[in-house]
Specification:
The protein is an alpha/beta fold and about 290 residues long. The protein has one domain: 3-Layer(aba) Sandwich (Rossmann fold). Helix content is about 30%, strand content about 20%. It contains 10 helices and 9 strands. Strands 1-9-8-7-6-4-5-3-2 form a 9-stranded mixed β-sheet, sandwiched between helices. α9 links the parallel β8 and β9. α8 runs parallel beside α9. The radius of gyration is 18 Å and the shape is globular.
């Protein structure tokens, strides 16, 4: 059954859950393109064959690492395994190197599920900011292959269309804390290896919405949860709105939610409250309860 919702106020209660396990295997190479091609796997205690949530870190595509997955304790307490991945930063390689790394990481995780003890048929991506962009990319790009399709993609405050980021932040009235995104020295231009404002083809090649448009009609998609803060001073909420609208137009999508946090910033404010990760946990529980990949 399809489920669509737009939520402007978030009120989620966390249930009491068993304590999380501490088992982790770190610095597992998933490819050989770069030393950044490594991941960590965290396993919940006492759970046989748990579903897997793959955390993709943020950092403007040019910094950050896998060391501190968002909501790790809450996810483990809920009975999910968590993989946290590194990918090549823009200082090392430009787009689509990061998408290549995602494909390699998810392929590795599927292939080695029995070895580490999680369920290869129940895998979700989860990322914030630049990682939100990559989580959206993973959910859409992997949908073209039924063997690799994800069960869900969770996306927090992502850049979606680099060419419209400036107008979207300006339209919110929130005082921005970044320079222009179409400038030659912006993180988005660094990812492309060329200025955003002069390279519309490169911008489209790095857009989850453009990738979605290329999928054949009838392509089955994972469930999507998109969350954005109304007070985000780095990425305007319109970016998430563009992704939500594009996904909503796909009749084959089975579940889609957009949560706008009224006092949420760029990972601050409402995102620091337990209800935010609680929403992710409840959403993934519902998705994983339906069984295997859609």
């Amino acid at each position: 059954m399809k489920r669509f919702s737009y939520i402007s106020l978030l009120a989620v209660s966390l249930m009491a859950l068993p304590a999380a396990g501490t088992g982790a295997v770190r610095d597992i190479p998933y490819a050989s393109r770069s030393p950044r091609n490594a991941l960590d796997i965290h396993l919940p205690e006492g759970v046989k064959n748990p579903p897997l949530v793959v955390w993709i870190h943020g950092g403007a595509f040019r910094m950050g690492d896998k060391s501190n997955p968002e909501g790790l304790k809450a996810l483990l307490d809920a009975g999910f395994a968590v993989a946290s991945i590194n990918y090549r930063l823009s200082s090392e390689a430009v787009w689509p190197a990061q998408l290549d790394d995602l494909r390699d990481a998810f392929a590795f995780l599927r292939t080695h599920a029995a070895e580490y003890g999680y369920d290869a048929t129940r895998i979700a991506s989860f990322g914030a900011s630049a990682g939100g962009h990559l989580s959206a990319m993973a959910g859409i790009a992997l949908s073209s292959d039924p063997a690799n399709r994800l069960a869900a993609s969770v996306i927090w405050f992502p850049p979606i269309d680099f060419s419209t980021m400036d107008e979207d932040i300006e339209s919110t009235g929130v005082k921005r804390r970044t320079g222009r995104n179409d400038a030659a020295d912006s993180p988005e231009s660094a990812l492309l290896g060329a200025p955003v404002k002069d390279n519309p083809d490169l911008v489209r090649a790095a857009s989850p919405v453009a990738l979605l448009e290329k999928l054949p009609a009838g392509t089955r998609l994972p469930a999507f949860l998109i969350m954005h803060g109304a007070r985000d001073p780095f990425i305007g909420r319109g970016q998430s709105g563009r992704l939500f609208s594009a996904l909503l137009a796909r009749p084959e999508i089975r579940s889609l939610e957009y949560v706008l946090l009224p006092d949420g910033g760029h990972g601050s404010g409402d995102f620091q409250k337990p209800e935010a990760i609680g929403k992710v946990v409840s959403f993934l529980k519902d998705v994983f309860a339906t069984g295997s990949t859609p």
